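S2.1 Query sequence (CBS domain-containing protein)
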Amino acid sequence: MRTVRQLLESKGPEVFAIGPDAAVIDAIRLMAEKGIGALVVLEPGGRLAGMVSERDYARKIVLEGRSSKDTPVRDIMTAEVATVRMDDVAEACMQLVTERRVRHLPVVAGDEVVGLVSIGDLVKAVIEEQQRELEHLQRYITS
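Output structure tokens follow.
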């Protein structure tokens, strides 16, 4: 099974982040500009503060009738974030996103966020692994 390190090597380690004191509207604009559904929220020193997603926006701004211009990200972000490390395997990450019902996992090395894996990255890795196993079995059967 592929590791998080291998996933990041194939997709790149780019992480889009925002500060907790930024206005929610700025977070939504950044997500729209980058075509992504979530941002890592980093304190000024680079420490992981949480995650903010389109889901957070829909539930905590739209449904509550709050202003995205006047509300800081800190007020709607998810502060308790599940994280993974470079040597974790995709299967364990998939279990984590399923159990926690999240779509994004920040990758940490020490206190630093070094990447982000999404449920899409994990599904792709699992499908590729299954395809390799199927091809191996087909070669075994035909030889």
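The domain at 4-142 is CATH 3.10.580.10 (CBS-domain). The helical segments are 4-11, 24-34, 54-62, 90-100, 119-142.
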